[in-house]
# Entry
Amino acid sequence: MLKRTHTCGELRISDVGKTVILNGWVDRIRDLGGILFILLRDRYGITQIVFEPSNIEVYEMAKELGPEYVIGIRGKVRKRPDEAMNPKIPTGEIEVIVDEMEIFSKSKIPPIYVNREDDTSEEMRMRYRYLDLRREGMKKNLLLRHEMAVFVRNFFNERDFVEIETPILTKSTPEGARDFLVPSRLKPGRFYALPQSPQLFKQILMISGFDRYYQLARCFRDEDFRADRQPEFTQVDVEMSFVEREDVLDLAEDLFVELIRKFKGIELEKPFRRFTYVDVMERYGSDKPITVFEHELKDLSDLFKETDFKVFRNVLEKGGVVKGLFVEKKHTRGEIGKLEDELKRKGAKGLVWFILDGGEVRSPVMKFLSESEVRSLLERMETKDRDGTIFMVADEERMHVNELLGILRSKFEKEFAEKEDFLDVFWVIDFPMFEWSEEEGRIVANHHPFTMPNSEDLERYEDDPLKIRALSYDLVVNGYEILSGSIRIHDRKIQEKVFNILGIDEKEAKERFGFFLEALEYGVPPHGGFAIGFDRLVAVIAGERSIRDVIAFPKTTSGVDLMTGAPSEVRKEQLEELGIDVKIGSDDL
Ligand code: ASP
# Structure
């Protein structure tokens, strides 16, 4: 075998005269009739190799080469003629004149372009992922991902953290999503669950005295995939003992300062900005807004207390609120109609709007409003003579108004984010401990049930649990919840209280988390931690919108691996061994 002496990204003008061996893929072939130029590619770069007819045997062989053939060549490095220099690639000053070649393997014509960015469908890219991963963009992303993983590991290793693996075949963990189940052959009728996160294990490691733990952990959640979720994903999972919230936030800030400095060349300032959950909802209508998109929700209730416009007045008389959002985009009636329909589906009673157009204000509700009301509206919304649209929502429920305007705001945010390059980093703290789940018709934990509630709130609002705040926190980066965590409960009594509020009785608690409750009785350090969504973090740093572009082998939004065909049917005997009878055939799906 012609074994490489150099990579395809390595040779420089100083190597001229050397005899070298290169291995790689045929990237591009240029046949100048009489002389043949080939770009040879490997992970490290591209080198031009030249076949001259004077070496007739090799020249004839070379004429048979096609794109993506894998070859080895031996030849002499020479300086390219001045007019053939290519300053765009590091090896652009030299070329290698081939005197010997070995074809390691041939390739069919690739169904997607490897050496050119084009609009090949993502389906084709996922089906032929091995070809897709040869592309420059994907290669760069995976190398970046690797470097970031190394960086993160070093960061924690240097600070006395220990990476400890936790099981994949385990018992249901409490992140609030559906579990993936794995049937047990040895215990027929029983199932393992794949971990939604290592949450309970990392807390148990604290109880075990490990003090500072981290892991690049694979997590699994069987959700109906929204556009950019994966059924399996990677978290940088962290837990530490003898700490309070400030200690955890401080460590996470150090990590992000160093990481952003290294990979973005931007200096973040500590401490990061902080919003409480209520604050961020009041101002942006979302718990993960993009705040560099300046437009905020404004409370207009005081301006319309005496108004003749009944819709507002009625709501305000019942103690409700009127809030508004201004954006610099003049909407058409059709566009507004669509937005209104969408908000109505989310429970809005209506959407009031004003178009500002060259100093003129148009709205179907103009006739109900006084001139001074309109004037104070424009002033409060800080429209500053700009053209655009003001949207207003009124409702008795304050948070509902925030959420509805937040839905609109997030649409404009997205348009903004597509055009601008920015870095927007801040904490959201003081989330509610519990929330009402419409779907389940009961109270659920907003983070997870092992989060420490604010102790004063817990005493004060035991009968009104939705008012209890939690010692939890999210780090929001460019509109994504990149990190999420909390201080945990280390006292079994508080844990029981929380289960009580969640309607989990003793029997259920024992069944689901008995092992953990038992562990809580054997000496627990105060502890807390967080998990970082690693895929999303890499995507943000890489400037990719989709996390699929930073995952080597991702699944589609319907959870299918287009390359392997998973999930697939299995052999009858396999099912029999497991004692499983499948009622739905794939034809029924
Ligand atoms: N286990 C949590 C999650 O996956 C993170 C944490 O609280 O550390 O969101």
Remarks:
- The first helix runs from residue 56 to 63.
- The pocket of aspartic acid is lined by residues 175, 197, 199, 484-486, 529-531 (CB under 6 Å).
- The two ends are 51 Å apart (CA to CA).
